[in-house]
Design a protein that fits this description.
The chain contains one helix and seven strands, in the order αβββββββ. It is mainly β. A seven-stranded antiparallel beta sheet has the order 1-2-3-4-5-6-7.
Length: 141
């Protein structure tokens, strides 16, 4: 009986894993964000850790992607305010060689009281992985 349970478990595991696969990617980039709140311009830059989990369907196309970004080291060099940046997004996949538009929202909280949501919209060509920034907006909280 134990062998039978093991064999069914193994078959189930293989059936699931032969039909779909997830890939995890982790990178650290130096990022910069500028904004204008109540007529005052500000900016911050520093290292941001990005993590992607991309799930492929059995045909090898992207089924969905979950993206996360986090930093506790973005700094405004003029004010020395240190920002925590956070971002999390899960989106559906896309057809190969498509042009898609995506908007991402980043939450920034400074240690001197600044709090804002930075939004950026990209047009992405998935055949070449080139992108164009369509718009950038900041909501000051």
């Amino acid at each position: 009986m134990k062998k039978l349970v093991f064999l069914f478990g193994l078959l189930f595991f293989l059936a699931v894993n032969l039909n779909a696969q997830s890939v995890v990617t982790q990178e650290t980039w130096t990022a910069s964000i500028s904004w204008e709140c109540d007529g005052v311009w500000g900016y911050a830059y520093g290292p941001v850790d990005f993590n992607w989990v991309t799930h492929f369907n059995k045909d090898g196309n992207v089924d969905w992607t979950k993206m996360m970004a986090h930093s506790k080291e973005m700094v405004n060099p003029e004010t020395e305010e240190v920002f925590t940046l956070s971002f999390e997004n899960k989106e559906e996949g896309w057809e190969p060689e498509a042009v898609i538009e995506r908007t991402y929202h980043f939450n920034l909280v400074g240690d001197m009281g600044t709090h804002l949501i930075y939004s950026i919209t990209y047009q992405i060509d998935t055949s070449t992985w080139t992108y164009t920034v369509i718009s950038e907006k900041t909501k000051c909280l």
